[in-house]
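Fill-in record for Tripartite tricarboxylate transporter permease.
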Amino acid sequence: MDTFAALAHGMAVAVQPMNLLYALIGVFLGTAVGVLPGIGPALTVALLLPVTYKLDPGGSLIMFAGIYYGGMYGGSTTAILINTPGESASMATALEGNKMAKAGRGGPALATSAIGSFVAGTIATIGLAFLAPWLVDFAVRFGPEDYFALMCVAFVTVSATFGDSPIRGLTSLFIGLTLGLVGIDKLTGQARLAFGVPDLLDGVEVTTLAVGLFAVGEALYVASRRHHSEEKLEPVRGSLWMTKEDWKRSWKPWLRGTMFGFPIGALPAGGAEIPTFLSYSTEKRLTKYPEEFGKGAIEGVAGPEAANNASAAGTLVPLLTLGLPTSATAAMMLAGFQQYGLNPGPLLFAERPDLVWGLIASLFIANCMLLVLNLPLVGLWVRLLAIPQPWLYAGILVFATMGTIAAKPSVVELSMLAGFGVLGFLMRRFDFPIAPVVVGLILGPIAESQLRRALAISLGDPMTLLQSPISATLLALALIALLAPFVLKGMGRFKANED
């Protein structure tokens, strides 16, 4: 009953005119950037962080969540029409969606994608509302050693999940952890890695790092691939609406996709790519029309798109209750919380219930807005694909620079922005994941302070980390997550040698 009361209070906050405007701006921007290939919601939130630092925290976070949901919706448009997923989570949608578009059924493909996203997003948001308080009650019992162990799980799972190579993921993480050491040591008061530069004594700004890696790095990377061939746009032919047969074949995949997306998205090693491909393979096995798969089966669009959007709500569960980001956009939202001096976790539910429940309630509103925006305005989203890339990325560079200057006018800050932009370009060029760098910078100092607290309480005994059942279990999980990719890779090579 408490959850219903909290949700009702959150809805009262979410329907305030300014918050509705923030939600509308968020879902509109999110859909637009989801449609544009290469510009995901993480990049958009990173760009908006320095611009929104003086705005209302609740409204800004509602806008960021709208961008996240909208990006998941918009990514399917390019996946279906030009076979180029706007988001990596839309890769499974492209397999059947583009075939449907080439067969003249782009309209029903976009419709089942939008409606499936709405159904999954609504069910998953209800799951978020009821699961979050339970997790908060559990997290309240955590001691400093338990929080440190939880951070270790986050470090390892994020590093292993993002990108193809766990070694590269861990390398990216250690770059972030090193950047987290810059500044004044809170325990001793000594400067660390500041190299005599006064601007570095406050540490590296998360917004500068995020904008440099995501926005500037992406612009440089796209410029380096300027002469690669462009995809041909498939026009939307025929009716946009679904037939009775399409509805009949879509509703079960929507529900199954939700069941895949929400729990996997809520796991520390979740993300949207795993449930979307699981949903696709499940629909391929269960379909009554196996001959259509590979030629444009509507189930292959409905299931993955539902899983995609359900995982977005699932990602917010560990973010809001434990402060753990499990996707690049969630890491940007965590940076947004910290920009306003807020730390997601059990205390936030107690200290700022209006903000947390207003954010959760706004997701229901964002879902309704997205359904209204996506189907009638599909022509507008398609026109966005005609924007020349040089104009688009030049605008992003200007916006990134102006936002950084507005947040912290300093030559050192602009130099760091340029340096992080080059780093982001090199990481993309050599296939190093970027999200672990941001996660390392945000969570590294928190993990350090929790470890120091645990050691201070135990008078320097490191065995205190294994004496708590929770921390011992979490450290064991972190070790398993660290070793598992290497073991699986070794087994694969051994099997290949045997064959």
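KEY FINDING: The first strand starts at residue 183 and ends at 184.
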